[in-house]
Amino acid sequence: NALNAAIAGASTLALAAVSFNALAAQSITVGHTTSDNSHYSVGVDAFKEKLEELSGGEFTVEEHPSGALGGERDMIEGLQIGTLDAVVTSTGPLGNFVPETYVLDLPFLFKDYAQARCVLDGEVGQDLLAKVGEHELVGLAWSENGFRHMTNSQREINTPEDAAGLKVRTMENEMHMAAFREMDVHPTPMAFPEVFTALQQGTVDGQENPIPVILTSNLWEVQDYLSLTGHVYSPAIMLASPILWEGLSEEEQGWFIEAAQAGAEATRAEVSRLETEGLAELKEKGMTVVEDIDKSLFQNAVEPSYKGYTDQYGSEMLDRIRNSD
Ligand code: EAX
Q1: Contact 190, 173 (CB under 8 A)
Q2: Residue 213, ligand 1, Cβ within 6 A
Q3: Beta carbon of 209 within 6 Å of any ligand 1 atom
Q4: Nearest CA to ligand 1 atom 2
Q5: Terminal CA-CA length for the chain
């Protein structure tokens, strides 16, 4: 009868719609370690919007924030074996996979945001993205984490001597660890998802991260003192899985790169905003902030760590960056 025919017709239509959507939209899994209100998350939103727009809905994006898919090192490994599609990560663990990027992790290399962004957007940045591509990874675009500052639970840090003796969580990065050793700080490398608990339980006294991370990952809840040491610029990068990449047409690859660049731009804008507004918020939340730091004292203390880098990797990249302004 008519009713049955209508029901049959409707369910055929519904089935057709379901299979059309399944064919049409490929879901891209993107992971990162910071929260869903962080600078990275703002970037993933912009990436999603741009990718969906450029592809006319062929791709959709599923964000997994807060280290839900693991720490940065775990997620990079995940890209290589294809368990996720893309990651926004600091360069923290990246040098373990792409040693050429270690140059970016040297302390006091970049003098300000303008220089760092300009280098990463220029030839040096392009060459390093190409190097990433030689290590079973795809570098879509340089993004940003920000200048890193020290926090701790024990005391105000005004000079390197004040920091000496503290147990400080660092990223799993040889360059950073070497620099802290020069300051007589005890570096304890650890994946980011473990940091809050380690600080809370006193396994370590301090950590170092940009203001956007200290704010949005609530590190202010477990750290009383913040010193604006700005000891190293922390780039971020959007990486894709080579397994995803090889399945894309050239046109589709172009959409991913353009979308990643849009994401990076949005993240940088958010970092800039939080540099001032986020700092004010951290003060309101009760952190004691040491703003007037004589950075040359820290710079002199960590200077010997450069030799470890140049002994192993030479000085060509370093010189290119230093001569870039
Ligand atoms: O990329 O591990 C870190 O301290 C990073 O700055 C954080 O995961 C954001």
Answers
A1: no
A2: yes
A3: yes
A4: 192
A5: 79
Kindly state if the Cβ of 227 falls inside 6 Å of ligand 1.
no
- The strand pairing partners of 141, in sequence order, are 238
Residue nearest to atom 5 of ligand 1 (CA): 90
What local confidence, expressed as pLDDT, does residue 19 receive?
Answer: 47
What is the residue type of 13?
Answer: L
Please give the DSSP secondary-structure letter assigned to residue 151.
Answer: E
User: For residue 21, is pLDDT > 60?
Assistant: no
Query: Which one is predicted more confidently, 9 or 316?
Result: 316
Which DSSP category does 68 fall into? T
Q: Which residues are CB-contacts of 292 (< 8 A; sequence separation ≥ 6)?
A: none
Phi, psi of 132 (to 5 degrees): -55, -40
Element (H, E) at 223: none
Written as six digits, the tokens of 241 are 């899985």
Residue (of 280, 267, 228, 3) closest to 140 by Cα position = 267
Both structure tokens of 279? 């700092």
The interface predicted TM-score (ipTM) is 0.99
Please determine, for residue 12, whether its predicted confidence score (pLDDT) is greater than 90. Answer: no
Ligand 1: distance of its center to the CA of 23 in Å?
A: 36
Each residue of 279-324: pLDDT tens digit?
A: 999 999 999 999 999 999 999 999 999 999 999 999 999 999 999 8
* Cα–Cα distance for residue pair 241/247, rounded to 1 Å: 10
H helical segments located in 219-315? 242-246, 250-284, 295-302, 305-313
DSSP H/E element including 187:
strand 186-189
**Of 42, 75, 234, which is best to mutate to test ligand 1, by the most ligand atoms within 8 angstroms of its C-beta?**
234
3-state class (DSSP) for residue 184: coil
